[in-house]
Structures are given as C-alpha cells and as structure tokens.
Methylase (Effusibacillus dendaii), 245 residues
Amino acid sequence: MDYQDLLAKQGVGSAHPGGFAATIDFLKDVSFLPGSKILEVGCGTGRTACYLAGQGYDVTALDIRPAMLRKARFRAQRQRVFVRWVEGDACDLPFPANQFDILLLESVTVFVDAKRALPEYRRVLRPGGRLYDREMMANKLLPRPVKRAISELYGVKQVPTQKEWLKLLVNADFETTGVWKPVAVPGDFVKAGSFDYPDPFQQVDEDVYRDPDVKKMFERNLRLMSRCAKYLSYGVLLGRKNGRS
C-alpha cells in the first residue's frame, strides 16, 4: 500500500495541507469571473470540484485513480451538482489546448514530474488563464534522513523550496505572480480544519479499519509529519498564462 492508496480507501476529501478550511479561505480571497471554465487536476474524491460546481461554475475534474473518481461521482450525486469527471494523468492531460480559464490543484504537482506537468497545465489554459496550485514547500534544507523518509512514504522525489517552485513555473513559461499566503505546516496538519469543515459525504471503505496496512500507513504518516513539520510550509502557487497560445 502507498500513501495514495490510503487516501483512496479512507475517501479523504481534503488531504492537502490545511485541509478544506484552507481551500475555503483561499476561495473567499480569490474571485473567478462568472462563467469561468475550471479544471481541477488531481481531484481525488471531488470535494473541491463539487463545492465549485455548487457555486455555479463550469467544472471539469481529473484524477488518475478510478477508485477516487467512483467516490467523486457518488459525492456529486449526493450533492446534486454536475461535474465532468475524467480519468487521466497530470503529465499528459487529455484535453485540447486553450480550453480552461482556471486550473486548480491541491497537493498534486509535488507527487508527479513537475517538469512534465507544468507545461501541460499551461497548454490547456486559455491565454490569460490562471494557475492556482497549493503545494508543500521546503522552508529550509532538508536533512538527508528527513528527505529520504518523505520520499519513501509519499513517493515524491523532492520537495522544492518556494524559490524552486517559482523557477519551475517560469521555466514552464508562466508569468509568475508569487505565492498566496505561505504558512508553516502545523504538526497536526492531517487534522487541520477537519473540525471546522467536517465532510458529510466522505466514503470510507468498509474494511479500512480492519486492514493492518492502513493502520501502519496512517501511523507512519502521523509520525513523519510530527517529525518533519518544522522543515515544511505550504502555499498556493500563482501563475498566469501569457497572451500567446
């Protein structure tokens, strides 16, 4: 079992740092024009996508895991909202160029090859389109044991610093506007915001709490974040596609 398997089994709706509380905080602070076409990449079980659809936006949501999308579709049915659900890879988006006004991600790019994914994000955005990408960032040099532990548990090759993230956006030909509200990761970030915004549509697999692998993975995650939080921060990367296609 890997970390993404754990999230799928638990049906987690907001596994990113800060949880759904951070999502709501951001969406209150940023304005999308009426009629905006939004693509969420790495939508998971669809909590953010369904919320945006409920606000009246035209939402397409993509994830690479069928188990996540099954739960996302069920969530949309329960919430009575319409989202176009698409199975696909962040590094090879199955959409024509210049399709979306907004591209939204929450703790996705760190798990994939950013040098392949970011040009794809830019390709499917319309000229003038906006990228909003909430990601984990290293706020200091990671000791080798910490870097190795993060890589082994989460399957990520590296956790870029804020400066490194912004350089990746520039190299992908985004006009970079910075990082929205970078903050330190709390040691209990897994639970952050969960009490303020409980998820009434979370779908947990029936066997999840009887599975010893789930328990081990969950405990490893808690131990690692408690150990590594002081090295990490998170924020929303802001990028704009320039006027060229």
Summary: The longest helix spans residues 212-228.
